[in-house]
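[09:14] KT: can someone run the structure on this one? pasting the chain below
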Amino acid sequence: MRVYVINGPMGVGKTVTGKAVAERNPGTAFIDGDWCMDIHPFVGNRETKAMAIDNILHMIGNYQKCSECKMVVLVWLMDDQWVLRKIRDGLAALQAEVKSVTLICDREILIRRWKNDHNCEWRTDQWLEVSLASLPHFASMKDAVDTGNLTVDQIADMIVGE
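[09:31] RB: done, structure tokens below
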């Protein structure tokens, strides 16, 4: 099974891009990693991230068993190296064919995307500062792709290699 892993800072467009990939490819499961650690109030520590990784890998394993599912799109903010390693190791154990991409853009575009997203409860000024501060880290990743001047359709096409 092919698994597309879409990483990047908050607000860059991981979810909208992942959903676009899933919608144009019948038989695709969409997983938002945040769903796998949806604790109220939010706690993003090592324990909850480890739980989310376990949940994600179990979901992907279950999708592999489903004859209707042909591929999976996973979107999640993965800024810790150990999280990336655990996801990659788990996908290798599942014998998944993996394509990873880290979406990035410049500060101004991230701010614009952030301000235009009225549906996400995380779109506060405090979280925007956190996201902006993370841009250099994500830009340094080997699979980083600058999506600043691309449409969602262009990004989705690039990810699936059309």
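[09:33] KT: thanks! The first helix runs from residue 14 to 23.
[09:34] RB: yep, looked fine to me
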